[in-house]
What does this fold into?
Amino acid sequence: MAAMTGFDVELRSVSVTREDPLTGEVREVARDVSLQVAAGSRVALVGPNGAGKTSLLLALVGATPFRGEIRVGPHQVVPKQLAALRKDVGFVFSDPSDQLFCSTVEEEVAFGPLARGWADADIHRAVDDALERVRLGHERTRAPSALSLGEQRRLALATALCCRPGLLLLDEPTASLDGRARKELLETLRQGDATLICASHDLDAVIDLEATVVVLGEGQVLGQGAAVDLLYDAQLLDRAGLEPPLRNLR
It folds into this structure.
């Protein structure tokens, strides 16, 4: 199975609504968002809790209601194209335990290609490659639940990488990681060919990824540009309710 190149992604006037699971109240969490993401680039959605970051990630795979238009590579995000779209997109949740359910690390990584009907030889090669990329090749017989949080995050990433997606979506990929685990994860992300869009509170990680930044506040785009420009704009960060990165590059 040939590796897939990154997808172009476009959002046109996208507004996302979410239903509160406790009250049933439906509210708009992202409003009139328009973005163009070039194939193979890395983009970080940053903003406070409730700014609409995760909702936009979910909208990109049609997992939450939205208005407007979204295109991911050759796919329009509409009901009749969702099955094909989701085969070409990798999604890594903020809590890796939400997506790990197999008995061993190797079975976990092989599940996606098996479900897609890949040939055995292609599956073996893809599993080996994905585990090597996240440095878990020596853990293939262990139970996912026996891994550390950092290892579980890398395993969840491997399950996405194994299917060779054109778009990789990550929700808070560095949350709760220690320094070494964080560094290893970011190194893996920098080496990928897929277009990457992540939601993150970790502004220093965003700088390390050399990502284009989209600053969100109250569901709206407040700014978009290079991390070294936007993440040291005190006025913009104050408007978005964010603190500047820990490191000082200026």
